[in-house]
Amino acid sequence: MADPKRLELTLRKPWFGAVLKPTVVFNGRGQPAQWGTGTWRVSADAPTEVSIFLYNRLWRFGNAAITVSGGSPAPLVYSAPVLPIGPGRLAPAPH
After folding, report:
1. Contact 33, 8 (CB under 8 A)
2. If you write DSSP's letter for every residue of 57-74 in order, what string do you get?
């Protein structure tokens, strides 16, 4: 069983994303991230707002956000947009 204070997050890279790095934000605090699966510490007793965006030195895009409840949060999957415009998608991982 997963540690209830850890959130598993999978970041799926876009086809054009060779130099892009995602930024993951927890309750307003940005965290650098890399593509793939990682875990982050979250509050065990309070909801946590998770948002992700990409930045290409000219503009931000691929914004996606979700609020996870305290306790044992479900793993999340972020999918970047197909083109370097528009929102990304952040949702619970399929079972």
Report:
1. no
2. SS-EEEEEEEEE-SSSPP
